[in-house]
Q: What sequence folds into this?
């Protein structure tokens, strides 16, 4: 059995956790949600959810992980021996495995689009909607892409915590932030940028309703990667001098800024082409943006091509660092529970996810008629049970575990690195108030609403 690793540096810790948080959720899902939920007003509510619920939950995951230095199942088992809390760890592993499978499908689309951008197809295709439908519905190419992205994540995980996750996060995250900065700059030069800014920054409070609230909270959860085993596992590799609250704050700030930048990249483009409404849904980045790149290409070919390549590279990198954080918890669990070596455990996860991911991918084409509960396809079903059922349950249980079950002294000791860090008292008071009351009750409200209405 391999000796348990830790991250080697504080910057590595922040970048790895930020890599988990920043993903398709920021650049693909966030703009879609903003578009469908009224623009600026959604962004304000989203930020409130992130600060009041997301950040305390992320800190709580770090506490459980760093305190035990174990995979999610053993972490709960050692903090609450002989109780049912171990189920929380099992759920965390299960949901990471399921999310990795269907997340790879969309990550695979970004790989396909990156290749098409490089070969010049994205900037010259005549009908981007038809291309998207044709590609996602076909049988083989999407499967090849699913396998491609999973093998990339496999490569990183097989190299372990410092040599894989930390090393690649330290390289990929700065690259990702640089690409975003260039793309935002380019987007502001577009004719639709004024209208986009108004849409994203000028709130229309009449648009607030229950749905907007619930979507904002769901998005905050997904985007911050909380409520399952991913950040807990990363927390288990944190060194004893890592500052948990500070790390959570940094990750939350990076994640939120990237999401807002994602909007700043996409909406000026959407308002410039005028052919699609901002609430066009998930097709925004795969259908609308190609038209924008084509427009740019028609004016200055090099600019259109470079922007297309950079954009899909950005999406792929963001997806990849999140996939890595889903791959690791399952792998660590297999290594530590079954004694498999890292290469074998990683392979088990990669292969099973290629199989499950293929089912999800085929559910857009040949398996579109295979339906589950409420007529859902494989893809919808995986998304539903993980993001809508298990993640909220995980969030509630996590807040109860850290807020009520663990001794308060133990939590404070973990937050202050054994009383070596000083924080103002109000910070602890607010942390405990948010984790004990606000987080569980708010999540319970969304959960019940989503299930019943
Ligand atoms: N936070 C990722 C995103 O925004 O795309 C998705 C994700 C990654 C969710 C890891 C959950 C997770 F454990």
A:
């Amino acid at each position: 059995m391999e000796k348990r690793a830790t991250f080697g540096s504080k910057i590595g810790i922040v970048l790895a956790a930020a890599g988990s948080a920043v993903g398709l959720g920021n650049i693909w899902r966030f703009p879609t949600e903003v578009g469908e939920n009224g623009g600026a007003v959604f962004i304000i509510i989203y930020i409130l959810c992130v600060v009041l619920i997301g950040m305390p939950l992320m800190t709580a995951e770090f506490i459980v992980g760093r305190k035990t230095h174990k995979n999610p199942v053993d972490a709960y088992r050692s903090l609450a021996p002989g109780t049912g809390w171990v189920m929380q760890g099992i759920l965390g592993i299960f949901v990471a495995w399921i999310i990795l499978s269907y997340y790879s499908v969309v990550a695979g689309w970004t790989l396909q689009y990156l290749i098409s951008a490089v070969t010049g197809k994205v900037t010259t295709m005549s009908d981007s909607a038809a291309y998207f439908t044709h590609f996602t519905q076909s049988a083989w190419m999407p499967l090849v892409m699913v396998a491609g992205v999973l093998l990339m994540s496999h490569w990183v995980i097989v190299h372990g915590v410092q040599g894989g996750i930390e090393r690649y996060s330290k390289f990929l995250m700065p690259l990702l932030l640089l690409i975003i900065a260039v793309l935002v700059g380019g987007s502001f030069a577009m004719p639709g940028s004024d209208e986009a800014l108004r849409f994203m920054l000028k709130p229309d409070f009449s648009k607030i309703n229950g749905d907007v609230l619930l979507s904002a909270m769901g998005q905050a959860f997904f985007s911050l990667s909380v409520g399952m085993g991913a950040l807990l596992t990363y927390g288990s590799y944190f060194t004893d001098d890592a500052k948990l609250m500070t790390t959570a704050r940094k990750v939350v700030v990076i994640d939120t800024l990237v999401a807002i930048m994602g909007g700043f990249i996409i909406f000026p483009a959407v308002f410039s082409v005028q052919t699609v409404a901002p609430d066009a849904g998930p097709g925004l980045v795969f259908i609308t943006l190609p038209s924008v790149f084509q427009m740019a290409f028609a004016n200055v070919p090099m600019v259109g091509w470079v922007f297309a390549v950079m954009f899909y590279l950005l999406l792929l990198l963001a997806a990849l660092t999140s996939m890595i954080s889903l791959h690791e918890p399952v792998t660590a669990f297999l290594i530590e529970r079954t004694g498999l070596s890292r290469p074998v455990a990683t392979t088990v996860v990669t292969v099973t996810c290629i199989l499950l991911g293929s089912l999800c991918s085929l559910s857009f084409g040949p398996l579109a008629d295979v339906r589950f509960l409420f007529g859902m396809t494989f893809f919808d079903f995986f998304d539903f049970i993980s993001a809508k059922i298990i993640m909220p349950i995980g969030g509630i249980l996590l807040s109860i575990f850290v807020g009520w079950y663990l001794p308060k002294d133990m939590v404070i000791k973990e937050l202050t690195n054994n009383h070596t860090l000083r924080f103002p008292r109000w910070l602890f008071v607010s942390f405990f108030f948010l984790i004990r009351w606000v987080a569980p009750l708010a999540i319970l409200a969304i959960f019940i609403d989503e299930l019943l209405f």
